[in-house]
Amino acid sequence: MEREQIRAVFGDHFLGKEELAPLFKALGFAEPDIQEKPVPYSQAVLEKAAKEGYILIYGVGRMDGQAITLRFLRDKFGINPDVSEPCLYNQDWYLKEDFMDVALDEQWYLIKKDVFEESRAVVPDELARGGMHFPSAILCAYTFFAYYFARKEYLWWHDFVWCSDTDHNGDRIYVGKYHDIDGVNKNGFSIHRHLALRSCYGSVNCV
């Protein structure tokens, strides 16, 4: 399929170099020079993905020599919604984790806009065994911010998304849930880890 045909098929779910320009402007790159690679997916895959609510987005891992990582996004967009939004949720446990400095491979990605309903409250290992392929945390964050600046819509407003990344203990990363439905926590793109049970977890008794 030709690029403009693909754009027409995906509509607002297409994020190519023109749609990415507002994101990179917000990141401080005044005139981003993005040279897209060809879309690698077949027509059948693209048409099926579009019908199933996937976003087709061009991933850019570096701009003007700067790696686009979770750390970079946090530094640029901040962690205080009272100052500016969109931003990241205020926490710092992940600052020494390797996945914070991973940049995207420059290529096209297909990522589901909404979580699968049947995946809710299912542990990630079970989902993986069932054939689910988790996106990286940086792809989720990149898509979140790119979609906001292109479409003025927040992805994963109340939902968390499992990621392929793990922390140094092997605990799986999950991200998203920009808004706390209970209004307890401030707005912000969240980055969390799902703590696995280990021998250091135990109980004491009280009477």
Considering DSSP H and I runs of 4 or more, what fraction of the residues is helical? 25-40%
CA radius of gyration: 18 Å
Query: The biggest beta sheet, please?
Result: 3 strands, mixed
Order of strands across the main sheet: 1-2-5
Shape: globular
Uncertain runs are: none
Summarize model confidence as the mean pLDDT. 95
Structural class: alpha+beta
> In percent, how much strand structure appears in the residues?
15-25%
Report the order of strands and helices. Answer: HEHHEEEHEHHEEE
By DSSP (H or I, 4+ residues per run), the number of helices equals 6
Describe, in plain words, how this protein is organized in 3D.
By secondary structure, the chain is α+β, with helices and mostly antiparallel strands. The chain has one domain. Helix content is 27%, strand content 17%. It has 6 helices and 8 strands. It has helices at 3-10, 17-26, 43-51, 70-77, 124-129, 137-151; strands at 14-15, 54-59, 62-63, 66-67, 107-112, 160-166, 172-176, 190-194. A 3-stranded mixed sheet has the order 1-2-5. The protein has a 3-stranded antiparallel sheet with strand order 6-7-8.
